Amino acid sequence: MVYNEKRDKLLFCKRIKEPYKGLFNFVGGKINPEEDGFAAAYRELYEETGISEKEIELNHMMDFTYYNQDCYVEVYVGYLRREVELKVELHPLYWLELNEDFFNTSKFAGEGNIGHMVEQVVQYGSGVSGERDSDRASINKDNSLTTKSLPSEDMNQLGTLDKNSLSIGVDGCKGGWIVASIDHGTLKIEKKTSIEEIVTYYDGFDYFLIDMVIGLPSGKEQIRPDMYARQIIKERTSTIFPVPCRQAVYAESIAEAYEENVRVLGKKFTPLTVGILPKMQELDTFLQEHEEYKNVILESHPEVCFARLNGKTVLSKKSEYEGLVERVQILQKYLPRLNANDLMQMAKQNRCNVDDIVDAICLAITANLAKQGLCEVIPEEPMIDETGLKMQMVIGKV
């Protein structure tokens, strides 16, 4: 998708052969084996139009997979930096006004896909922020992702990142944990298999926040921070799961866990809680066996942190594309080079949900703010469980 320098026209080719003969389509071509998508996009654009990398910056906006056609499509978008003399390779080229009905399948190829892509740019922007390609977020061979923050003078009034610290944010995922680290201003995202692997790899961190229960109640009189968190995000209280008692977490079966929770706390817990019982046990066991990390690895909650970074509760669901984009835009206030589509691609490669990655980044940013004294603990005077763990959450200040 190529916009002119005034951003009021889109570049199309008119196909002279099938498929879609006689219809307008975006320029494009095939990605060669072992070729990077960005490299292919710039190469095909130059071959089809004569537009070089010096004259446009492309952003990876979205992907389509057509399983019944065994076809995978990557979509890139950009704005020309200056007027360019087009060079036709095969299909004639045309600049079309933005008031066209791009969903008109008698004029445009793709069964409505062109209209959908244009609408995405209208609603959410192109993702092009003016950075050099060498500074964009990049997915590495080990499926980790790195991106640099902007210099502090380019950040907005919400705050700047501490460029002299190592801050860690962790969220559980299928098969392990997603770790977002902000190391001296550079974000890196990786998947690790265990808590022990995380602390070994990131030895020397300044602040470590995790979206997992720390401090397990052993009786009704012990109050966790969950009730305080629910008061902050009253519209999204369902995202804060009921925490089981210590006896239930270490039960030998789910049936026994339910029985123990009813016996100790007088209530059951939800099926969603059942899914994270192994993660609760892993983290608690690690902390019991490594006293030096007790009350050093700290609990937080992404939705509460997003509310604090945003100034109000984020009502959209991060499992949906719109919710993902909204949260990435909040995080871009601190890491402007984040891109929703890069995160989606990385989630596929790491076989995790993209919201696991987004949550980990949110906690890493909050950890960085905590290092600067810009966070608070709820409740202000937390209770302590029977093993010495504080039952608290670290969140951003109002």
Task: Outline the secondary-structure elements.
Layout: E1 2-3, E2 9-14, E3 24-25, H1 37-49, E4 56-66, E5 71-80, E6 93-97, H2 113-124, E7 138-139, E8 145-148, E9 166-173, E10 176-183, E11 186-192, H3 195-201, E12 207-211, H4 226-232, H5 246-249, H6 254-265, H7 271-289, E13 297-299, H8 302-310, H9 321-331, H10 340-350, H11 354-371, E14 375-378, E15 393-396
Parallel strand pairs: 1-5, 9-12, 12-13
Antiparallel strand pairs: 2-3, 2-6, 4-5, 7-8, 8-11, 9-10, 10-11, 14-15
Helix pairs in contact: 8-11, 9-11, 10-11
Biggest sheet statistics: 7 strands, mixed
Helical element count?
11
Shape: elongated
- Spatial order of the strands forming the largest sheet: 7-8-11-10-9-12-13
Mean pLDDT across every amino acid position: 89
* Structural domain tally: 2
Distance between the termini: 41 Å
Estimate what percentage of residues fall within beta strands. 15-25%
Helix and strand pattern:
EEEHEEEHEEEEEHEHHHHEHHHHEE
Helix content: 25-40%
- The count of β-strands is 15
Structural class: alpha+beta
Concise structural overview:
This protein is an alpha+beta fold and 398 residues long. It is 31% helix and 20% strand.
Structure commentary:
This is 8-oxo-dGTP diphosphatase. Keywords: Hydrolase. Residues 128-153 are annotated as: Disordered. This protein is of the alpha+beta class and 398 residues long. It has 2 domains: 2-124, Nucleoside Triphosphate Pyrophosphohydrolase; 137-398, no CATH class. The chain is built from 11 helices and 15 strands. It has helices at residues 37-49, 113-124, 195-201, 226-232, 246-249, 254-265, 271-289, 302-310, 321-331, 340-350, 354-371, and strands at residues 2-3, 9-14, 24-25, 56-66, 71-80, 93-97, 138-139, 145-148, 166-173, 176-183, 186-192, 207-211, 297-299, 375-378, 393-396. The strands form 4 sheets. Strands 7-8-11-10-9-12-13 form a 7-stranded mixed β-sheet. The chain has a 3-stranded mixed β-sheet with strand order 1-5-4. The protein starts with a strand and ends with a strand.
